[in-house]
Amino acid sequence: MTTADAHRAIDAVWRIESARLIAGLARMLRDVGLAEELAQDALVIALEKWPESGVPDNPGAWLMATAKHRAIDRLRRIKLQQRKHEELGHELERDWEDATAELEANMDDDIGDDLLRLVFTACHPVLSMEARVALTLRMLGGLTTDEIARAYLVTESTVAQRIVRAKRTLAEAQVPFEVPRAEELGERLSSVLSVIYLIYNEGYSATAGDDLMRPALCEEALRLGRIVAELAPEEPEVHGLVALMEIQTSRSRARTGPDGAPVLLLEQDRSRWDRLLIQRGFAALARARKPRGALGPYALQAAIAACHAQAATAEQTDWKTIVALYDALSQLTPSPVVELNRAVAVSMAFGPAAGLELVDALVPEPALAHYHLLPSVRGDLLAKLGRHEEAHAEFMRAAGLTRNTREHAFLLERARVSALDMPPASETKQ
Question: Which residues form the DUF6596 domain (predicted)?
Fold first, then answer.
């Protein structure tokens, strides 16, 4: 195995195993910041050893065992009280097989799930909402500060500062590593749902890299969403989020072509949509609708996704209902991204000119200045209006903004097609 191959393998393993690794260490050490530091130490050792020795058969257990040995060394260096040293040292020195069995057991233990404990710890009310989201995305999703910044449309330095301060605050407040009691669950639930959905979004549309999707992140977010739904069965928005993720995930197989290139929603082969996931999503949406009153933001987005899932063909999509749902969503959670999605729906319901007018109004938005979907959507609408030269420029700008290899190639191809549709130079001068 070459060094480059080993590093790619290590990166893939880290994406999958880092959350479990940090969560397992945090449960033992009761210190989220220290747990992440030790996990990073184990990663560094893997980067040194795996290019020569190869990736182990069970890389997660290898990383856990390595991190535990680092923890023992740390405990010795800082000279913790002898009793605590002995208790933690005994636990941390359990053999490799025990570590593997514990990891597998925790994956199937709903209430005692280390990952869920990690989510609620990172979402503790002692932290600001922004810090809760940034810390949990970092710990649970294994995302870099840059990826979190792009997901939340803030600067990388802002995210880095939030994470550092959040870990310090948790340590100083001695926040327990546990799932909150029933009476505390409600106040911490909304931030947990926000975090889970952001993790899902990073999996559904990867910010960077060679793949359009990161299925492991989607699966982890969906699994956590289902767990929270069981913990809070009377909370409609929990079911709304689960419904949204189930229905969105149903399209995964149809979202890319044989070569891995993106396939737009309206061009997807709907026979490849997973009907079981769609039915699960409909069932979760029904649970979200049971209480009287207006739907919440996640349930509204799930209802939009359901409109697509109910249409046997793209032409049968009820775009006017989707526009109405986006109207309601923009009232509840106004944001430039919601408005951009609403503009797309308006263009489908009432024509590309109506959609372009709304998109043009969003161009000055600072939050969308580096958001590649803004010029991508604008390019699509311009192309539909026959303004191919402007469309070409917008697709090129969108390609320059994305750092996902698949999206970059897709947008360059759209720019190329727009260029072919441009009138000859002699015609443009007339």
Answer: 188-288
